[in-house]
Amino acid sequence: MMRSFITSTIRKQTDLSGMWLMTANGKTVSAYVPSCREMLTGFENYRGVSVYEREISAGGNLLFRFGGVSHSAEVSIDGTPIGSHNGAYTGFDLPLQDVESGTHRLSVMVDNSFGENSALSVPNDYMTYGGITRACQLEQVSELYIKSVGYIPKKVCGKWEISARAVVRSLSKSAELVSPRCEICGMEYAFEPAEVAAMGEAEFSARFSVGNAKEYTLSSPVLTPVRCVLSVGGSDIDDLIERVGFREIEIKGGKIYFGGEEIQLKGFNRHEEHGLFGCALPPAAMAQDIALIRDMGGNAVRTCHYPNDSYFLDLCDENGLLVWEESHARGLSEKQMRHPLFMKQSLDCIDEMIERDINHPCIFVWGLLNECASDTDYGRECYEKLIGRIRELDSSRPVTFATCRPGSEVYGGENKGDGDKCLDLCDIVSFNIYPGWYHDSPPDEFLAAVRKWAGKNGGEGKPFIVSEIGAGAIYGFRSRIKDKWSEERQAEILESQLSAVLADSAVSGVFIWQFCDGRVSSECFYGRPRTMNNKGIVDEYRRPKMAYDVVKHLFLK
Q1: Phi and psi dihedrals of 357, rounded to 5?
Q2: Tens digits of residue pLDDT in 480-506
């Protein structure tokens, strides 16, 4: 299931979850979709090409929708290619016109190997799995159908307005004049008519008032359905349903406000990772993660370092859990950012992320380029262009990026004028710091030094977030003398770190690194015990470490 609610009352939608045939490395097995290939016996360490196949019964105008394929896909019907996509963490749709009714063979060639075709999927401190890792479905559509919709609520003179955008796609050989409409809170609002070119697209924009809107708050997360309907000749031929939350996000006086109330973030960095499912978590496992985060007193999650599954974001909407959603990239050097495909694939990911997720009220900030080369002139050019694209697509939310690059003086050296060059570009300053784990600086002193440096280098007057902080422990390893990797040592370091951060009134919040232990790419240059990043407050099976109760005490204090 792609979403937690019904997205159309007109389209026939067929869930393609279930058993497929998967062929890789000369071997064919049955594999459930969605899933990670590495969770199959005999393919635990396989990286490369695999082919997924199944039969479908359908005809007419078809729309194949994939929530995520890692990390590149080529899709065919009855041996004829119909489209491709690169990028593991955003979905893609492939339309196919006038398919003969009957049984057809759907084939998806998947490749998660590292190479020159991908600038973003590289050996990294998280696992790049292979497979059809998110839900997929087949929809029967008309020759004209609604490709996407986006809604931005705003309060004007005490009343709610919505800026609406709809994109209509044509599979017809002739142009058509159409006028979509929006249905919300018992009212109808029409877009101005416009012509959709043959085999083309048209964008519709409008702004309308919603007099009886119910506000979305974190304590009462009221979601309002909006139905966009397309009519031709007086008949409704397509609809697309989304949900919105009537709330605003503001930056004032160096603080973050959600729905008019200042927020203090008590969050977790969460990889889509599970010991049983890899990155293809079923909805029940997603819901359990949210329950554990809530139990510890958390109110926010960061989708490090890529867009998360739409279903997880739906659950965050429903639970009033704040989300920092991040475009795909982590730790890229200037050389990697100079890859000829880096800018295109980064822009594509941002475009696809915001088009897909702009309606989620839980998302309070867009993020990008975690720990990339923001301390270089070329890196700044990249940050400026990509932040500009985010603001072009959505001006209603702030933008941030997590950096780990303060100047040398923060570490006790002289002022060399080095460090991050991009803090002036973002709305919120976010730093990844690990005092007590990667260095022995007292957390309060190190945090104060970083904040002071940031203020002098483009961050003055902006909210400040500790975007990563934490320490590692291997579940079950106990040590009375608090050896490294022991649960005792992790708990002690986290208590010291969080106490310092939460006591600093100039800090708008913290995201612990990380919620759960996660597998890293075996090709990764880090030396990680168990080939895992072991900084989770719970392990990969959600077994709490000693730090769980420490975090819970401090977050609920």
Answers
A1: -115, 5
A2: 999 999 999 999 999 999 999 999 999
| CATH fit for domain 12-140, picks 3.40.50.2300, 3.30.450.30, 2.60.120.260, 2.40.400.10 | 2.60.120.260
Confirm if 338 and 361 have CB atoms less than 8 A apart.
Answer: no
The predicted pLDDT at position 413 comes to: 79
Residue 139 is which amino acid? Answer: E
Phi-psi label, residue 56: left if phi above 0, alpha if psi -120 to 50, beta otherwise: beta
- pLDDT digit string, tens, across residues 322-350: 999 999 999 999 999 999 999 999 999 99
Which pair of structure tokens corresponds to residue 498? 């969080």
Radius of gyration over alpha carbons of the chain, in Å? Answer: 24
Reported residue count of the chain is: 557
CATH architecture, domain defined by 144-244: Sandwich (2.60)
Q: What is the mean pLDDT of the chain?
A: 97
| Helix, strand, or coil (residue 496) | helix
* Band of pLDDT at residue 525, cut at 50, 70 and 90: low
- What DSSP character marks residue 115? S
Is residue 317 classed as helix, strand or coil in its secondary structure?
A: helix
> What SS3 string covers 5-30?
CCCCCCCEEEECCEEEEEEECCEEEE
Shortest CA distance to 40 belongs to which of 65, 67, 17, 19?
Answer: 19
pTM of the model: 0.97
Q: Encode pLDDT of 98-136 as tens digits.
A: 999 999 999 999 999 999 999 999 999 999 999 999 999
